[in-house]
Design brief:
Distance between the termini: 80 Å
Number of domains: 1
Structural class: mainly alpha
Strand order of the largest sheet: 1-2
Number of helices: 9
Number of strands: 2
Strand content: under 5%
Helix content: 55-70%
Order of helices and strands: HHHHHHHEEHH
Length: about 300
């Protein structure tokens, strides 16, 4: 008899193959007992086996997305090392200037591939393009890191540690349930992101047209020589942007969880890793800029 308890409504608890009619009224109950024993053994084997993962189900899981994300970051790190070496290769006593070629190649290639991945994912997820983006992004990150390290020795190590700390704390708070994405916070975040984007774009355009006196512009087009209560404006904005990036990570984690709950196909884990990579790189660059402003103002 099927149990009325909804917890046992799963077909695994309703093995109808064992329900056989008796051969006759005088037949011994050995056959039903044997069938019950076989059913019990089969169910025990089922629940003793490891749970089905992304490969078995073809669905997105948090664990599989983590593995994909780590694979993408591995490609990024290898490409970053190559970009660093390429940038510093021309530096000699006679020519002390690093080359900007890998910086430019990585920035343009990363931007183009990011747009292709974002718009192309509406119809199909292409992991090869995401890996290519990771390579170009690594080239850009490695090159720009080499430039900053050349000017301020030790700054890359500091920025890397700070980035790992922010990502680790954000992930821990999200996993513990103490930090969650909310509609109100997301609206405020969106408004702040739009404001920051407009400000940065306007600032860069003004710098390109020479609207600022020589030496008055800070790293990445932000004014770092303007002070508020003795603190560089670029430093204040940088801290604000780091908070925006941290909340972006919360939104990324929440989106991945939502994809898992929705039963998204396994390949969407690559998009999850791609989104996290974009946010982490942005966070790293912003922390690198903050450290450069802080050390440049001393």
């Amino acid at each position: 008899m099927a149990s009325n308890n909804p917890a046992f409504s799963n077909p695994a608890f309703q093995d109808r193959s064992s329900a056989r009619p008796f051969a006759g009224a005088g037949t011994a109950p050995a056959a039903p007992q044997a069938a019950d024993a076989a059913t019990t053994a089969r169910l025990e084997g089922m629940y003793a086996a490891p749970p089905a993962g992304a490969i078995e189900t073809g669905r997105m899981t948090v664990e599989d997305t983590v593995i994909k994300t780590l694979a993408l970051f591995a490609v990024l790190v290898v490409a970053a090392v190559g970009g660093w070496i390429w940038t510093m290769a021309p530096v000699t006593a006679a020519n002390p200037q690093p080359t900007m070629v890998p910086w430019i190649v990585g920035a343009i290639g990363g931007l183009v591939l990011a747009l292709v991945v974002i718009f192309g994912s509406r119809t199909k997820v292409r992991p090869a393009l995401i890996f290519a983006y990771a390579a170009f992004e690594g080239l850009f990150v490695g090159s720009i890191s080499a430039f900053f390290e050349y000017i301020w020795p030790g700054i890359v190590f500091q920025a890397t540690l700070a980035t790992l700390a922010v990502v680790g704390v954000t992930l821990a708070l999200f996993a513990s349930g103490k930090v969650r994405a909310s509609r109100r916070a997301t609206k405020i975040w969106l408004i702040a992101m739009i404001g920051y984007g407009v400000f940065s774009l306007l600032n860069v355009v003004l710098m390109l047209f020479g609207a600022f006196p020589a030496g008055s512009g800070g790293a990445f087009g932000l004014l770092s020589d303007v002070h508020i209560l003795g603190i560089p404006l670029g430093l204040i904005i940088g801290v604000f942007v780091v908070i925006l990036a941290a909340y972006s990570l919360v939104l990324d984690f929440d989106s991945i969880q939502q994809g898992v709950r929705n039963g998204a196909p396994r390949q969407y884990g690559w998009l999850g890793g791609f989104g996290i990579m974009v946010t982490v790189v942005w966070l790293y660059l912003e922390i690198l800029r903050i450290l450069a402003i802080a050390r440049g103002s001393n």
